[in-house]
Structures
1.
Amino acid sequence: MISTKTIVCGLDDIPWDWAFVHYLKIGEGLTGQDLKMQSVFNPAEKNPSFFLYFDHNAKRYKFKDFSADKQGDAVTLVKEMYGLTTRGEAAFKIIEDYNKYLIENPNGHKPSEFKEHRKFKVTDFMSRLWTTDDQKYWNKYYIGSKLLEKYNVKPLQEYKMSKEEEGVVKELNIKGPRIYGYFRTDGVLYKIYQPMVKDCKFINVVDYIQGTDQLSMQVPYLVITSSMKDLLSFMSFGYKNAESVAPNSENTLISEHIMQSYKLKYKKIITLFDNDQAGIRSMEKYKEKYGLGNVLLTLEKDLSDSVEKWGKVKVREILTPILKTVLNE
């Protein structure tokens, strides 16, 4: 029988990392590092999209599940995992489960020693000349050299990532084919795109709404796409009355003050995201928060993939009437 002296009555009496370790069945200790794993809410996903990270401001671990569009602390995790109504119910479950844990583990749970885990950051890069292999890749999406030049997409020979831990600087030099840098017009590198790297296609260097520098704000319509590649595919259609931007990802909601500035310049703004669950949820968020209409293209997962498979002419024939309908609503 468990002694009443060891019974906990509040969340503050439970080790800070126990809930995540217990409910996510994490085999390693949480010491401040970031973890990426299969979604507990969407086990059928092909690419893991569940991230566990240490929030240095809140001094606690939090999670973000991009595939299920859920995020929060351990209490939120338990609430969502078990379909509970309130955070109070979730907190009670955590306390109850920890007390059950103490019956089998009288010494309790000893959290791992916290360490400061610095992340690798891009600190240098080297550009290179375009090759026929680059041309072959971008031509699949009918994206030509003029568009790539206009939007400051450049091939990279390599890039360097660095971090400092315990006074020691660690560096990684990454080389390979089909590595591209996305640059602002002032020459600042804001993103690296590696289509050949499955688990790390994008590396964000600085926050930036893609396509911002190229906006004329002299046309009536603005289309928000989910990526630079989709933005370029859209602009390749040559619509004279529309231009496009793309946030860091379709899960990134453009801030209210920027959206208000867009609304002062454009007659109408719409979204054109991926047709998977994450993309549809993101379009719904933009509609709910900003009242934006959305275009759902169902040919392939996204616009650029549709162009690759069906061709530019076919996709434009299908997309144009959908755009007209949404823009005239």
2.
Amino acid sequence: MSIYAKVVTDSISDHGHRLTTMEVQCHRFVLAEFNTHRRFSRNSASSRAIPFQKQLQRMEELGLAYPLSWPKEQKGMQGGEEFSEESIQNLRSGWEASARGTIQMAQAMYSAGLHKSVINRLLEPFMWHKIIVSATEWQNFFDQRCSPLAQPEIRVLAEAMEVALDESSPEHIGIDNWHLPYIDEETILAVMDADELELKQEALKRISAARCARVSYLTHDGKRDIFADLDLFDKLVVAKPPHWSPLEHVATPDLLDIHYSNFDGWIQLRGIYELAAQAS
């Protein structure tokens, strides 16, 4: 497996504000750099939440995340010239040996009964990581991370995201309509056919937020289940404290074109639910 970026949902409002949600995969060890960009709303897989054995299975399926560059040591944040091909093969072998040794130690800790929230941290340097990210402003990220001065692993990701954004055409979303990541025709039909669901549009918003929360279109059991999604949404908003961040990806154009949040010209579902919670 490797770095990728794909547009999930792309919308533009009457006022010309474009809101885009992407699904991206990157090296886990550049997540901290990715998270410094405050205009982004983002959710990603949690090392604390995923069972250890499932994390190992995922690593086996995707393969190890190797560095993209093998520069020689020099002063400063930028590496020096690349090692020779022969040396790089030796370095890759060392990286793999480190990963395998870490996995063996993690398995021993798991057998001893240590909780996944601790053990999974050992695996992070060698993992691929999936992120859902939504934004109305991307240029600062591209300026900073597409630069030759950026770490290669995040630079390649940023370049893939820039290409994905350039190649996507946003759909016009009018007032009272919604930007709904991971909602397709099949989901809409399932919701409309569900007699027990009275507020269909509200259900679609909640399902969208839940799917962003689990960072996957499918449940963790690999199934499409709108009622599992609705149940997850309820758990997000009633938690103490609530888990609001997945609700940021779901948004509606702002009639007054006011900047409320990290999105320009859009009102996030998070803001609506937070106000309701404060009023109750």
3.
Amino acid sequence: MRIGFHAVTLACALAGSSAQAFPIQINIPVNDIAFSTQTGMLYATVPSQAGLTYGNRLIEIDPETGAITRSVFVGSEPNVIAISPDADVAYVGLDGAGAVRPVDLVTISAGTQFSLGASSFFGTYYANDIAVLPGSPGTVVVALRVNGVSPSYSGVVVFDEGVPRPVSVSATSGVDTIGFGLLPETLYGYNNETSSFDLLRMTISDSGVSVAKSVPALITGYGARILTDGDTIFGTSGATVDGTQFHLIGTYQISDYNYYGYGSRMALDKSYDYVQFAVDDTIAAYDRETFIPTYVTTTAASGHVVGAANCGAACLAVAYTSSLILIFHDIVHDEIFAGTFD
């Protein structure tokens, strides 16, 4: 049963001898979703189409109940969100202004936004991806893009409290999505727009960021994104790469994956050593080491997946283009489920 706007439901049913948990539903359009291990809450960026109550705001969601607990206005058309791994701060990319804005997650208050600049040929830069420097919550790395041009990637820049470091990675290097390695001076990037599908290792220094190595086609898939855990690089298309040696560790065989990358996101559940995937209407968890699926379920969700975030042990939050967020609990080790919700 689909329920009213902003309303939430949670139901459980039994399927044979295994308990199947139906997801919490939240009916609201969002562009991205993330989880803070510091606050234990989910955060999502809400576009202007949501209307006066939540439009152009960052909302806070309780993953246990699905309740929207707090929100803050952040600016026109908030999109990608990145949360510090060790501090109560989030950074939101603003597509209306071509800027990034920090948000204090304790007080749920927005700080001063900073501009990403502009190309002399293609106009305003926008945040394609954001990564917060571990141990330095005032420093972020932004993978830039421009609109109306293909490929859209436009370089990588390090910002300290909104001030760019002088050395940056050029647009020709081809970086769409980024993640830090084991050491804070190591940054990985992936080109998901051209057939070379370059995977890059970059070096962060006091002067900025530079490319150390680039290898084609270890991860493939247009629109695919990367997620890093130390120097292990996970691609939403299923490939897993050792970033120190740049060799393929293995591939998760993801059902229904679209080669063009639409509707595929992933998260890591470190409590169970799971790799969680959301691919359109399929939710799956795989054993990280064996690459074997331990949980699979299908939903009646329409549209593509725009964001996914692990929200604790056996928990996954997924946002869809159909103005829907689903929060799955009890993604249980060694249980494989199949079912739908209405």
